[in-house]
Amino acid sequence: MAKGKDVRLVITLECTNCSQNPNKRFSGISRYTTSKNRRNTTNRLELKKFCPQCSVHTIHKEIKK
């Protein structure tokens, strides 16, 4: 039987460079969606992903929806 709460959450990761840098090549912010396990990862997720606006690998942090 399934439990009441879903353990996996769909989260959004946002580039930290794009959100802080006003002088960038393109307008916009790089965002990725992924899922995380609520029980195993209680704190905010940080992953190093490729940002097409910055053209480099940067740290993407979990944001609130």
Give an overview in words.
By secondary structure, the protein is mainly beta. It is built from 1 helix and 4 strands. Strands 2-1-4-3 form a 4-stranded antiparallel β-sheet. The longest helix has 5 residues. The termini are far apart. 9% of the residues are buried. The mean pLDDT is 84.
Query: Architecture, according to CATH?
Result: Single Sheet
According to DSSP, the number of beta strands is 4
Share of residues in helices:
under 10%
**Straight-line N-to-C gap:** 29 Å
Radius of gyration: 14 Å
The CATH homologous superfamily is termed Ribosomal protein L33
Described by the principal axes of the CA atoms, the overall outline is elongated
Keywords: Chloroplast, Plastid, Ribonucleoprotein, Ribosomal protein
Pfam family, one: Ribosomal_L33
Family: Belongs to the bacterial ribosomal protein bL33 family.
InterPro entries: Ribosomal_bL33, Ribosomal_bL33_CS, Ribosomal_bL33_sf, Ribosomal_zn-bd
Question: How would you sum up this structure in a few lines?
Answer:
By secondary structure, the protein is mainly beta. 8% of the residues lie in helices and 45% in strands.
Outline the secondary-structure elements.
Layout: E1 8-15, H1 16-20, E2 31-37, E3 46-51, E4 56-63
Antiparallel strand pairs: 1-2, 1-4, 3-4
